[in-house]
Amino acid sequence: MPAVPPCRFRPLFRLGLVMSLSASPLFISTSWAEDAARRSYQVPAGSLSAALTRFAGLAGVNLSVDPALVSGRASNGLSGEYGVEEGFARLLQGTGLQLQPVGEQAYTLTPALDEGSLQLPSTSIRGARGVVGDQPYAGGQVARAGYQGMLGDQDFMDSPFSVTSYTKEALKNQQARTLGDAVAAYPSVRTSNPASGRFEQFTVRGFSLFNSDVSYGGLYGILPTYAIDMEIAERVDILKGPSAVLSGIAPRGSIGSGINIVPKRATDAPVTEFTGSYVSEGQFGGAVDIGRRLGENQRFGVRFNGVRQSGDTEWDHQALKRETGVLGLDLREERVRLSLDIGHQNRRADAPQERVELAPGAKVPKAEDIDRNFAQPWTYSQTKDSFGALRGEFDVSDSLMVYAAYGARKGNYDFLRHGVQNTQNNGNFTLVPRTFRRDEDVKTATIGARQWFSTGSVNHTVNLSLNRFDMDFDNAGERYLRSIGNIYNPVEVAYPGRPNRFDTSTHTEDRFTSVALADTLGFLEDRLLLTLGARLQRVKVTSWSDGVRDEPVNDETDTSPALGVVFKATNHVSLYANYVEGLTQGETAPTTANNADTVFPPYRSKQAEVGAKYDQGTFGLTASLFRIEQPAYQFDDLNNFKPNGELTNQGVELSVFGEPLNGVRLLGGVMLLDSEQSDTTDGEFDGNHGTGAPEVNANLGAEWDIESVRGLTLTARAIHTSSQYLDPANEQEIDSWERYDLGGRYAFKLGGSPVTLRATVENVLDKTYWASAATSSDSAAGLTLSTPRTYLLSATVGF
Asked: How many whole angstroms separate alpha carbon 217 and alpha carbon 632?
């Protein structure tokens, strides 16, 4: 390849090649990087750029390279045992270049003093402490990279997808209790079920996302179904758009986004923290975080996180109790990495709030006139989840890694609730008490391989992945005599007596199997990255009703392609595009429908996206244009839930993050969305806007470090959501809304121990509004009421 003229491109390129182990470098041992430490390396001969990239990744060292320096140069590679400095010396021999430190764990290349010889600086090169995704971007609120299924962790500038990763520090400073709190800062995501309700549900780019479709270290279905506590999270990765090719089939068929929770691991530095917390109107809690590394070279890791919180909420006769404990163990050897996570979550809510379903033609109620909890005080939700995941990785060679993972979960759910159905103009609604019980048994497994090699000047990263997901679940329940309630003037009704109807007991078995192959090709010394992949998927669903086994409801097989391309136009700008298809499990009719629990056939979803990413070093921007297509589901005049036409959501997203000014951090963005129905029955709703899909979402959060008071930081956040339609006819519409949050934190030391005090007021103006108009996982389209002004206080002490 001809040399790139340095006079033309040097002002544009100071390309930071931040490299780490591709094979879960969470477990990189820093002992590799000590001067005296030696290990086996195999770096093939080829271009100098590829050789340095490979070696830096294996050694866990950050290396920044000016492409003009290495362009056109070759390396003889190396094979054998080397120390880090010795390995770089061998690779750079005869190139006229030398290693130069530029900061902690950061190095670059400069011309050597004497052509043909290498002058190594007298410095100790230390190994990277985690994957690229664990390296926070400037400001510390987001990570540089996130999990992207079978492709592993990728730096956001190298990814052909739109991905954002929130760090554990951001979650702690936000005082996030559940996933709903964690994603509140993201403009594409909105909560579509009451925060004080039985479960959490979201919309992303206008499409539903369920907790069942949130992965845990890449495994679907392992985390609790109804709510996920954030104390267990090292990082929260949000990958927008269909991700079936990358991660396999999502259990509930979410296509607008994929969310992955990264488990916590013991770090090289010991961790011992206690956090005490208070949430209005009377919730007190405590959380512990303990981590240690043990043994020779700190081979063994132990991390425990536990939390307990209980008390009254802002709504009358409503209380919440949550308990979670997760133990994470890991072993890291030179070529082997193993981990085991075991967890349990217990959650109970008394008088959880329900979504408000309107009668056909009824006016949208005035949210500001609702000042009391319209859920009956005898209602409750009780959820218990026990889960675990075992993972292993083995470096067959320095160019081939194989991995496997197995996860399981048992969930038991018990509800006594009532719907808020058929609400009239005067606020009266039909109150139908019912019990609902659900048991879930999940087993899932993944095996795969990742290999790096070069063909001429083209670098390859080939990924092979096989996935299996099994879930068995049983539903049962009873219903009781109806009565009348009112959302404006709630009146307590009698505790239900004997049921007057028994719901049909159902048993369902989901069996999802797939195999995927992808190759990421690097051209022009990895300035142009092309990812080509496909996944062969089989979806099989079988159900029983009252013990009578049916034939498989669905048994479909299909192949889904994926294409992604990234062009690093400069060291600051990446341009990207992707096209992804996915076979997605069909919807299940809500329990309020006449055809409740009907499982519809799988369908094909499609996404096309183009965008640009800007990395200024301390300040980042992303911009994208996207289009997603999937079938639409609606209730007919007979209250049957079924497919009706297609829903196309297309729009523009802009996001911002980082620390543009010293001590000033920003996090937020805007989404403009056009959601349109088509091919509906007799064209009745063609051209109408999709339900629960606001045209504008905007978020902006800011933090200011007060220079005059060291350790003091003030925070503020504004959230805007435009109007939304509740019905496909676009006759019932909720108003736009804004929410403002204010807070601060103060970090100091007390007797040598670090202490951080945090205080936040959410919904400062105490506005009441309809936050969402969307279909729930177990009911018709309904309205989600906002959460009143909430005070959050916490104190974290390190020992």
From this structure: 31
Give the C-alpha separation, 590 to 344, whole Å. 28
d(CA 761, CA 705): 18
Q: Are 794 and 278 in contact (CB under 8 A)?
A: yes
Q: Report how far residue 536's alpha carbon sits from residue 396's, in angstroms, rounded to the nearest whole number.
A: 26
Q: Are 94 and 117 in contact (CB under 8 A)?
A: no
C-alpha distances out from residue 619 to 19, 374, 664, Å: 20, 45, 11
Q: How far is residue 324's CA from residue 635's CA, in Å, rounded to a whole number?
A: 38
CA–CA separation, 600 vs 5, rounded Å? 59
Residue pair 555/578 in contact by the 8 Å Cβ criterion: no
**Range(s) of the chain covered by CATH 2.40.170.20:** 263-798
Amino acid in the structure at residue 738: E
Enumerate the CATH 3.55.50.30 domain ranges in the chain, comma separated: 6-111
Query: Largest alpha-carbon pair distance within the chain?
Result: 92
pLDDT score recorded for residue 26: 29
Distance CA 473, CA 410 (A): 10
Taking alpha carbons only, the member of 158, 245, 161 closest to residue 611 is 161
Residue-wise over 298-314: b if at least 16 C-beta within 10 A, else e?
bbbbebbbbbebeebbb
Amino acid letter, 302: V
Domain 133-262 CATH class label: mainly beta
**If residue 611 lies in a helix (H) or strand (E), which one and from where to where?**
strand 603-615
Per-residue model confidence (pLDDT) at position 50: 73
Q: 296 burial class (0-12, 13-18, 19+ CB within 10 angstroms)?
A: exposed
C-alpha distances in angstroms, 425 versus 421, 430, 459, 487, 567?
12, 13, 65, 11, 56
* CATH level 3 topology of 263-798: Maltoporin; Chain A (2.40.170)
Positions in the chain whose pLDDT score sits under 70:
1-40, 42, 45-46, 60-61, 67-68, 71-72, 80, 101-107, 113-134, 242, 256, 547, 549-552, 591-592, 775-780
Tokens of 150: 């079978």
* Rounded Cα gap, residues 739 and 719, in angstroms: 5
Q: What's the confidence (pLDDT) of residue 130?
A: 33
Nearest alpha-carbon partner for 69 in 86, 52, 84: 52
- CATH assignment of 6-111? 3.55.50.30
Residue 369, helix vs strand vs coil: helix
Residue type, 546: D
CA distance 660 to 149: 31
Count other Cβ atoms within 10 Å, centred on residue 573: 16
Distance, in Å, from the CA atom of 560 to the CA atom of 245, rounded to the nearest integer, reads: 7
Q: Is the peptide bond before 731 cis (omega within 30 degrees of 0)?
A: no
Q: Which helix (H) or strand (E) holds 700?
A: strand 696-705
